[in-house]
C-alpha cells in the first residue's frame, strides 16, 4: 500500500516537539504577516514550558538592576556566557513579561498589590515572577488561547518532524520546510515554507531519568545537525538537583513515570534545607551559599553524598515553614506528594538529580538566526550563549520569550525577499512508512528499538553524567558507536530502507545523534567549567574560556542518525 502524501504550503512553519513559550510567542507575531503552521509531536500542552514550575526571571523591582541580573547570569554560567546575549535578554526581559500580562497571563501578587517576586539559587535579588508552582502552565494557557483564536495559525497535532528540507546554493545551505509524519494516520506530510523556526525543546531522554516530557528526544537539534547547522556547547547538560525520588515515597507510584516529577528550585529559595538520610545538613560543606548555590554545585554535592554513602536519594525539608505558606507557594508539589502518602508540611521530600536542561544546541545569533538560510531557532533547542556553562534558574523561559520575539522581524524580512517554488517540492525523495515490512517484522524492530533506547540511556548516565573523565567518555563513545551500529544492522537486515520512517525509529535516530554530540563536545573540553566536571581536568582554565563548536559534516558519511533521509539537491537561487 503506497504511503499517503500531502503537500502544505505556508509562509512560515514553527516546528515543536512541544509547542512551548518560544514557538507560541513567535507564531502569534509572524501570523500578522502570513499563514503559519505549528507542527507539534504530541498535544500542544505537552511541553517543557508546561512543566516549568519555578517561574521566569526579570528585573521588575526598583532595588534590582539589569546589571545585577547580568552579573548573576554570567557568574552562574562560569563566565562562558555571550555578554551581548546576556545584555539583550536581561534588558528586554521586563517588557516581555509585561506583554504576557497584557495577553492575560495571571501571576501571583503580594499583599501590596504588586507582583510577588521570588528568589532562587544564584540570584542576588527577588526577581522571579510566578504563578504558584505552575508558572509554565499559566504562560502556556494564555498563549495557547491566543493561538487557537488566530485564523492565520494552523496547529498540526501528532505530527512528528522527520527532517528539514534543504538545498545547497553554492556554499550556502537553504531551508525550505520539513517532512512530517502524522503519527495517527501514518501519512507523510511535506510542508514547504519560506521560513522555519525550530522551537523543539531539549533532549532530556538521552538519560534514563529526566524532568522533560516524553517528547523531548532532541529532534530539533538532530534535524538541524543533519541539515548542516552549527551546534555549540552540547557538553553542558544541566541536571536539576531535586527531582522527586519515587523510591523514597511512602506509597510508591503504580508504574514507572515517563518523566521525573520536578521539585522546583523555589523550594530551596524559600528556605528548604537538604539533608542526607542521617538527617545531616551537607550543603554548607560544599559551598558557602549552601542550598542557594547554583544548580551545578548542588547537583554535584548531592551526587557526591549519594556515592559516598551508597544511598539512592537525599531529603529536602521545607516543613519548618508555616503550613499556609507552603501550601500557597507549592500546591502542585504538595498535592503530588500527598497522593503518595507524604505531607510536605510535616515531612521532608525525597529528591535525586535528573537531566533537566540542555544549555547547548543549535548555534543562534542575536535574532535567532542560524547558518542555514531561512532557519531560525528559539528556546531550549537553541544555543544563544545566554547560559554559558550553566543556566541560571528561571532564565530559560525568559530567553525563550526574548529570542522568539527577536526572530520575528528578520523572519518577516526574509519572507518578503524570498519566493516559494512549488515545483521544488518534488526535488526531495519522499519518506516511506514501512508497511511493506509487515506487522511481525515491525513488532520486532519496535521491541529492539525500545531495548536499545534503554541501553543508550544507561550508557549516558553511567559514563556521561554529572561527573565525567576522559577515559569514561571515550568508553561511552565506543559503546554508543557499537550499539548504534548493532541497531542499524538489525533494521536494515530486516528490510528497513534509508528513507523509511516510524516514530520510535526516528526518535531513536535523534537520540543517538544528540548523545554523540554531547560526548564529542565533552571530550573536546579539557577543563571543568559549570555543568561539565572532569575528574582528570578538575580546574577551570582561562585559556579554554571559549564555546565548543561542532561544524557541519559531510552529507555522505556517517550513520543513519547522522544523515538526512533525502539527498540534498543543488539548486541555484531557489529563494
Automatic annotation (TrEMBL):
Pathway: Cofactor biosynthesis; NAD(+) biosynthesis; iminoaspartate from L-aspartate (oxidase route): step 1/1. GO terms for biological process: NAD+ biosynthetic process. Residues 453-543 form the Fumarate reductase/succinate dehydrogenase flavoprotein-like C-terminal domain. It comes from the Eukaryota. It comes from Gossypium tomentosum (Hawaiian cotton). It is found in: Plastid, Chloroplast. Its EC number is 1.4.3.16. The keyword Flavoprotein applies. NCBIfam families: nadB. It catalyses: L-aspartate + O2 = iminosuccinate + H2O2. GO terms for molecular function: L-aspartate oxidase activity. Catalyzes the oxidation of L-aspartate to iminoaspartate. Belongs to the FAD-dependent oxidoreductase 2 family. NadB subfamily. InterPro entries: FAD-dep_OxRdtase_2_FAD-bd (IPR003953), FAD/NAD-bd_sf (IPR036188), Fum_R/Succ_DH_flav-like_C_sf (IPR037099), Fum_Rdtase/Succ_DH_flav-like_C (IPR015939), NadB (IPR005288), Succ_DH/fumarate_Rdtase_cat_sf (IPR027477). This is L-aspartate oxidase. Keywords: FAD, Flavoprotein, Oxidoreductase, Pyridine nucleotide biosynthesis. Residues 20-397 form the FAD-dependent oxidoreductase 2 FAD-binding domain. GO terms for cellular component: chloroplast.
